[in-house]
Amino acid sequence: MPYFAKDHNEFLKCFCICCMKKSNDLRCIQTKCNKPGPKQAKNYESLIKRFFWENYSVENSDLPKMLCSNCRKNLVSLEKTDSKRFLFKARPKYEGLNTRVIRGGKCECFICVNGRKNGTETATLPPMVSYETNADIDQSHSNLNLSTTNENLVLCRSCFQQIGKGIKHPCTKLAKQRNLMHIVQSTSPVTKEKILSTTINNLVTHDAKITLNTFGPKKLVVSIGVVEPKTPYFSHSKLKQLQSKLHTSDNKMLEIARFIRVNGGRKSVEPCIVDKLLKIIEKNLFEDTNQGFNFVNSYLSTINLARVPYQGKHRLEGNASNKFLKKLDCFQIYLDEHNIIGGKYMKALRDFSDVVHGCFGKILNPNYSDYIKRFSQSFRDLGSNIPLKVHIVEHHVEEFIVMKGGKFEFFHYKSKDDSIWALYSCRPTLSSSIKKKANV
Q1: How far apart (Å, rounded) are the C-alpha atoms in residues 325 and 274?
Q2: What's the rounded Cα separation, in Å, for the pair 64 and 62?
Q3: How far apart are the first and last CA of the chain?
Q4: What is the distance between the alpha carbons of residues 287 and 282, in angstroms, rounded to a whole number?
Q5: Residues 334, 340, 345, 347: is their CA dihedral positive or negative?
Q6: Is pLDDT of 344 > 70?
Q7: Partners of 315 in the β-ladder
Q8: 223 to each of 196, 209, 226, 391, how far by Cα in Å?
Q9: What's the rounded Cα separation, in Å, for the pair 129 and 131?
Q10: Which of 52, 55, 59 is nearest to 16 (CA)?
Q11: In this predicted model, what pLDDT tens digit does every residue of 205-215 receive, in sequence order?
């Protein structure tokens, strides 16, 4: 009996219309419900038009007219539950299918090309179209299963290659690398970023640069940057610029700063003087800012103090700042034990401690003016910018004391330990009714 090659019409009976897979359980798409009763046959043509491709028609002689059991089950499930689990994410691009017979009596459409391949040859992926957008999908680097679900998907545990009929399985080290790369590339951008950041974080040791191997001869050098800490919304320099533009007094600027802190959080305005001095020490006495931050925290824990975390940052608040100033000798000993020379930074802290206890104590020290001048000079010797609160100490504390006749009994604040409160309170318009403590 002579052998005749199959034509296009015969190959249409070998593939499922939805997943384009050869299967032993293909059934013809039924268009009529011949059997009455609860077990009547489904009209799969209408289900295909509803959930897969609205332009499908059994009358079109160029399209497959078969359905596999898996796709039949998914269509029925979609009809019952509308569950996203059974949604078709993509479909073969049947539009413009060229079934013209060329010389030799062969059709070169993707249906016939895959139909002529035996079980040992890799199936050619048809051009795919997204179900939601009808946009073409790039399948140049894929070996994807075109079925609607992954229930029958089997991957090799060694190389992560899909195992199936007609799919090559070299199971080599290079194949494993490429398969992993294709899996990562098929994920969302957010997933790619998470995988990349986790991998780089595991490779980084103490070096700022790491060298990565590639599929080519050249290696990729990656530099790890340092995350810069968030600066306050309104630094002291910005407040000074705002003051010069609005031509407002220092009292008004203090009210503005307080209003910003109440509504934008405590980190919206640059912090207090003690915290500022500690940050200068961390930045200048240590090679790494994180190292200095951890060193200061280790000392604070020895005197039962801790910086308060807020919006990703840490700071030393009013009462804790005053306690820190009272224990500067302990801090000096701690620096000496770790072979760290405090020098001018410790001098600035001690001078500021003299200002706090000389001007804002129960009894006004007669040498308060000298304390302020010494602190002003020692702070400027650090080479840092002049914060707004240092400016207040330099120019307005003494002015307020003179205006009040050299008496500070006027202040009736609740906490004797809150030294930094006075930096927000030293203004000429204070009245004796102010008794509440302002947190700085």
Answers
A1: 8
A2: 7
A3: 100
A4: 9
A5: positive
A6: yes
A7: 308
A8: 14, 4, 10, 40
A9: 6
A10: 52
A11: 656 678 888 87
Cβ atoms of 18 and 121 within 8 Å: the answer is no
Whether residue 128 contacts residue 139, with contact meaning beta carbons closer than 8 Å, is answered with yes
Return the SS3 of 220: strand
CA distance 240 to 81: 65
One-letter amino acid for residue 77 of the chain? S
Torsion of CA 191, 195, 197, 198, to 10 degrees: 130
Full-model pTM = 0.34
- The HSE-up count of residue 208 (CA atoms within 13 Å, CB side) is 5
- Cα separations (Å) of 7 from 20, 23, 100, 224? 17, 19, 11, 60
* Each residue's pLDDT tens digit, 178-237: 888 888 877 777 888 888 888 887 777 656 678 888 877 888 888 776 655 555 566 666
Tokens of 204: 């980084």
Give helix then strand counts, H and E, for the chain.
17, 11
20: CB partners within 8 A, 6+ apart: 64, 92, 110, 111, 114, 126, 146
Distance set, CA 126 to CA 8, 93, 95 (Å): 16, 7, 12
> In degrees rounded to 5, what are phi and psi of residue 256?
-65, -45
DSSP per residue, 164-192? -TT------HHHHHHHHHHHHHTS-HHHH
Residue 317, judged by CB atoms within 10 A of its CB (0-12, 13-18, 19+), counts as buried
Residues with Cβ within 8 Å of 274's Cβ and at least 6 positions away in sequence, in order, are 316, 321, 324, 325, 349, 352, 420
Residue ranges of E strands in 301-404: 308-310, 313-315
Alpha helices in 90-131 (DSSP H): 110-115
Residues 70 and 22 sit within 8 Å (Cβ to Cβ) = no
Pair of tokens at residue 132: 């939601």
Answer for the pair 49, 77: CB distance below 8 angstroms, yes or no: no
How far, in whole angstroms, is CA 395 from its chain's centroid?
45
User: Backbone dihedral region of 387: left (phi > 0), alpha (psi from -120 to 50 degrees) or beta?
Assistant: beta
Mean pLDDT, to the nearest integer, of 371-395? 81
